[in-house]
Amino acid sequence: MATVIDKVNGQPVTATDESRFDPIALAEAEAIRNRAAADADARRIEAEGKADAEKIKATEEAERQRITNERNRLKLEKDQAAHNAYIAEQKRRKEAADAAAAKTRKAEEEAEAKEAALDAEQQRSENTWKWGARGIYAVGLIIAAPIQFLAFWDKERPFLVAAPALLEGLALVLAFGAAWAVAHRRDVMPYRVGIMIGACIAAGINLWHGIGDKSIGVNAGIIGALASLGGPVVLMAYEHGIAQKADGIPSWREKRDAERKTKAEAEAREKAKKEKADAETQAAAQKARQQVQAEEEQRRKDADRREHHEDVWEVAEALRSARGSQYVTEQIWVDAWYRVTGSKVIGVRPEMEAESRAAQARMKTITGMPILGDSSQVESQKAPRAKKAPGTPDGRRFNGGVPPLRATGDARPYCDAAKKQAALEQADTTSSNKTI
Fold first, then answer.
1. Residue 12's beta-bridge partner residues?
2. What is the model's pLDDT at position 423?
């Protein structure tokens, strides 16, 4: 029996409308509308996702650029700080070098000034001494010459008036000769002898005439004798000093300073020699103590090894004797241990190595056993999903009502922990089900 449709969507249907109603067309139209809406929503979501992705990418790029700029800024600050430190160090070194140079220059200037002052003082004192000696000679000549003129004056023999010039001039000329000898580095001793002979003759004549001639007097004779001797002696002393300086002969003060310096250097050498001898004695004593300690330590090790490792000790003694060594060295002991036990590790024998390997094997077996019971559950058999970018379409919605088709590789694989646990449990179950 056919069903009559009176209304469609709440509206009365006429015969003409009923004949025109097509449910398939309506369903298709509805599906088209839904698909268009879904496509619009998908495009909108995709556009929003792309916009969000671009925004995120721009944010990340800006952050990356900020970090890069920050790193560049820090690097620039570090380089600037290093450069500033370098400049400061160079400035400090330059200032130190300038200060050292200024100090050296100041010391040299002070030494030069001191030397110049010393030279000036020496020149001043030499001039004073020279003119003083000449002045004394001139004063002595002024005093002694009139006495000799009075002594030699004779109206009948007036030529004798030249005798004082001969006697006093003899010492003066010989003094000039001594100065010439000093300047030309000649022997000055004959001139000095001549000066003293001439001065003594003049002094003797003055003294004799002063005693014998009352018009002259004893006092004048004595003063004349002293004047005749004093001037040439002072002048000769001056020339003697000049000769010593020219010949490089050290003075008494220089000899005393040289002796003090030589004595101080000898004392310093003696002190250094004594300190060196003391250091060598201490080093020898220290070496002897170390040698005794080493011998005691060697005896202790030999006794210990002989007592606890007799088989290795016999081989070590044989190697020591064959190699001509004084005692069993560490290398000989290593070789002997290897020859006896086969182990390159000192103290490890085969039985110890076997026990160690057995213990390691047991530990490896125990740690590799499966975990059964409540502790065997893992959190999830599936590996965690890869995170999607915000705004990415879900992929399960707006698919037009058609379920997605499954294909090979769509399902996520089990995680490594789940695979390992399943394999361990399967192996344990298989081994327990075996029958003997």
1. 7
2. 75
From the list 109, 252, 124, 238, the residue with the least C-alpha distance to 176 is 238
The answer on pLDDT for 290 being more than 90 is: yes
> Which residue type sits at 246?
A
> Which residue has 């600037």 as its token pair?
80
Residue in this structure with the two tokens 């004797």, named with its chain if needed: 321
What is the mean pLDDT of the segment spanning 99-122?
86
Q: What is the DSSP letter of 394?
A: -
Q: What is the residue type of 168? A: E
Map tokens 């056993």 to a residue.
Answer: 369
Q: Helix 163-183 vs helix 23-152: angle between axes, to the nearest 10 degrees? A: 160
Question: What amino acid occupies position 388?
Answer: K
- What DSSP string runs through 23-79? HHHHHHHHHHHHHHHHHHHHHHHHHHHHHHHHHHHHHHHHHHHHHHHHHHHHHHHHH
- What single letter denotes the amino acid at residue 83? H
Cα 425 off chain centre by? 66
Q: How many other CB atoms sit within 10 Å of the CB of residue 208?
A: 14
pLDDT of amino acid 66: 87
Calpha distance 152→67 (Å, rounded): 123
Distance CA 159, CA 261 (A): 62
Residue range 77-97, pLDDT digits in tens? 888 888 898 999 998 898 889
Instruction: Report the distance separating Cα 92 and Cα 86, nearest Å.
Output: 10
Helix orientation angle between 163-183 and 189-212, rounded to the nearest 10 degrees: 160
Q: Is the Cβ–Cβ distance between 340 and 315 less than 8 Å?
A: yes
| Mean pLDDT value of segment 284-298 | 91
